[in-house]
Amino acid sequence: MPSTNGRNWQRGRGEDPILPEVLYVLWERRLLVVGAVLVLVLVAAVFGLRGERLYTAEASVSVRPQEGPGIGEAPETFVDDVLAAVTAHDFLLDVMREAGWTEGPGAFQDRLDVERYEEAAGAAGLRVRFSGSSAEEAARSANAYASVFVDRVEKLNDSRLAGGTLAADASIDEYASPESRVNYQLFFLAIAATVAGILVGGTAAMLLESRTRSWRDVRDAELTLRAPVLGVIPDYSEEN
Amino acid sequence: MDLYAAPGSGAPGARELLSPGSSIRRHFEGLADNLLSLGNRPMSVVVTGPEPGAGCSSVCLGISGALAGTGRRAAVVDCNLRNPALHRMLGEPNFLGLTTGLVGYRALEHYGFEAVPGVFAVPTGPVPADPDAPLRSGRFVEAVRGLGGGRDLVLLDAPVADRVLEFPALCGGFDGVLLVVHATRTSKNTAREVTEDLLDAGVNLLGVVLNSFANGTS
């Protein structure tokens, strides 16, 4: 029996999703799609493994106002003010020295990510992330930033007594540890390569499918034409 | 003419299509059953393909042979005036047929022949200078439909789908259109475009036949 009767199939034809057809084509040409995915993943793996492997470590520093002008201020604004005051003079050079960093400040800054945080209880502070070529380097650098920051805040508090305006308490809430964070760059690269492989392989499969002159079966014809197949006649030319 | 008894007459394909013992008979029987079991059972069907060589003439003969094999009667009319094939397949001359029937005073019944019992064939007849004129004739639809009296199905062996769309008589004058797709020659793109064109033109597309399928087991 035909899959649909009369004109009924024509009425719903426009509403039919093309997803089943796409999935069917991808499945029928799965070798092509899988091949494209494998090639791109391989390329991504080679690219990722040949490049420098980065480890990321994170330390967190809490910052609170003591008294004076900072008290009525919004926590995030206060943290910004402290950060601006603390990092004004050769701060990064001190951090690099503390971390034992031998390359230039540009490379250090590229791997550094300082983010302000604010918690619901009103506490605020900084999250210091550093990506290093080893887990130890990453942790050492993040901790160096945090400890130099805290030292600087204390120095600024001392200078307040001599006429400064900042009054803040800063402490390291959490030190970065060497195994605290693993860099997922390679993993994300593999995911991106897989998605790209599916897209490239899928596009190639759809392109080949539209140009092919070889029909697989009834389902193939019905999905391609979105019309019922009433009969399949085998090739009988050889029998003649 | 008896194609069964005279193996030398007609093309080998026609003998295979009309012979009751043919290995492909059951496939045509299934196709004929599906066609006749559609809602609003069609009595006259235009058989076309996305491109030349899809096998429309073979499908027409195969369906009519299958119907004849089960005691029913069918007629096949060759409307492909630019490329007449039916008379050649059946090994008959083309002196009389559709074109002479349309200008004559008698019914089209008198311008064809019984290919095998139950299968009445009307070739194109001599092709006029303007091969499209008979298909635009006011008598065309009425004359072909007239063959349906006492028959279960009238099949029109039509030109390719693009040409069918040029003739309102072929698009809308009969009960529906059957699209023949060659399983190794017709590109999917072409078949899909033709299907869209037919439906956009409001044609009652009854369904598709996958012809010359290499596996044959679907």
Describe it for me?
The complex is a heterodimer of chains A (240) and B (218). Chain A has 240 residues and is an alpha+beta fold. Helices cover 52% and strands 17% of the residues of chain A. Chain A has nine helices and five strands. Chain A has helices at 8-11, 19-28, 30-50, 75-86, 91-99, 105-111, 135-161, 185-211, 218-225, and strands at residues 55-65, 112-118, 124-132, 168-174, 229-234. A four-stranded antiparallel beta sheet of chain A has the order 2-3-1-4. In chain A, helix 4 packs across helix 7 (135-161). Chain A is elongated, with a radius of gyration of 31 Å. Mean pLDDT of chain A is 81; it is low at 1-6. By secondary structure, chain B is of the alpha/beta class. Chain B has a single domain, classed as Rossmann fold. In chain B, strands 3-4-2-5-1-6-7 form a seven-stranded mixed beta sheet, sandwiched between helices. In chain B, helix 1 (12-18) runs parallel beside helix 3 (56-69) and helix 2 crosses helix 3 (56-69). The radius of gyration of chain B is 16 Å and the shape is globular. Mean pLDDT of chain B is 88; it is low at 1-10. Chain A binds chain B through residues 1-2, 5-8, 10, 13, 209-215, 217-218, 221-222, 224-237, 239-240, and chain B through 12-13, 16, 22-24, 27-28, 30-31, 34-35, 37-40, 55, 58-59, 62, 178-179, 181, 183-189, 191-192, 195, 199, 204-218. Strand 5 (229-234) of chain A pairs parallel with strand 7 (205-213) of chain B.
